[in-house]
Amino acid sequence: MISVKNLSIGFDQKIIHKDVSFDVAEGECVGLLGGSGAGKSVILRSLIGLEKIYSGEIKIEDEIVSNYKENDWIKIRKKVAYVFQNGALFDSMSVFDNIAYPLREHTTLTETEIYNQIITLLNDFNLPNIHERLPSQLSGGMQKRVGLARAIIMSPKVILYDEPTAGLDPANTVKIQQLILKLKDKGTTSILVTHDMETAINVCDRICLLHEGVIAESGMVKEIKSDANSFLQRFIRGYYE
User: Fold this and answer.
1) Contacts of residue 135, Cβ cutoff 8 Å, sequence gap at least 6
2) N or C: which end of the chain has fewer CB within 10 A?
3) Is the pLDDT of residue 235 over 90?
4) The dihedral formed by the CA atoms of 47, 48, 52 and 56, expressed in degrees to the nearest 10
């Protein structure tokens, strides 16, 4: 579903990533881990054209997108959803209007169809009766779930999660994990950027460790658990330096 080959990205002539390569199979959830400042979110943003790359190749469903112009990215963003760390909700819009925005922009659904679809989704997310509230009237955990609801309302094939559990208490963290697993069970392909090792272990099939501008190591979660001396395992235990 996603193929990244020899990706190089930088800012102000400083190279952040010099040779990043990894693949994500259809229906797979890949965790992208690394130390603070490693540029994990930069890679996510490059997959939907929000960051310019120096060199390398990005393929989505066998289509090379790394040389796309801005207008070309629109069709990719319809099938590759980005879940921002802070929810990125429009403060002046109600929950309903936030989620309805992509449907109104990119579909021909009637307002009644949009309403029914959104209310059903909010109920599925255990967020009943909040559609008229503003984001400022929601807790942090609720804002993140609304952000996720908006991201999936167009039924994307791929979801990019940028620190979806950051700042959440354990109960809300579990709720986000359950939602990610529910979407994964439906066959959605995903990449998870996180510092939350427990969430990575619980929802990911495979983990890639980003270190010094490259994928230093990768492995299946079940294998990582059994190899106490692996680079990834040491990172997860907090011994990474």
Assistant:
1) 87, 89, 90, 91, 93, 95, 98, 143, 146
2) C
3) no
4) 30
* pLDDT tens sequence across 194-224: 988 889 999 999 999 998 889 988 889 888 7
- How many other C-beta atoms are found inside a 10 Å radius of the C-beta of residue 237? 10
Q: Are the C-beta atoms of 206 and 220 separated by less than 8 Å?
A: yes
User: Residue 237's pLDDT is what?
Assistant: 66
Q: Is 171 helix (H, G, I), strand (E, B) or coil?
A: helix
**What are the C-alpha distances in Å from 135 to residues 26, 66, 143, 204, 223?**
33, 34, 6, 29, 41
CA distance 193 to 216: 16
Amino acid at 186: K
Domains of the chain in sequence order:
2-38+50-215 (3.40.50.300)
- The pTM assigned to this predicted structure is 0.89
User: What average pLDDT does the segment 62-81 reach?
Assistant: 90
3-state secondary structure of 204: coil
**225 by DSSP, 3-state: which?**
helix
Beta pairing, strands 158-162 & 80-83: parallel
Per-position DSSP letters for 40-107, written without gaps between them: HHHHHHHTTTSS--SEEEEEETTEE-TT--GGGHHHHHHHEEEE-TT----TTS-HHHHHHHHHHHH-
Enumerate the H helices of 125-215 as residue ranges: 140-152, 170-185, 197-203
Is the pLDDT reported for residue 238 higher than 80? no
3-state secondary structure of 221: helix
Which residues on adjacent β-strands are paired with residue 162? Answer: 193
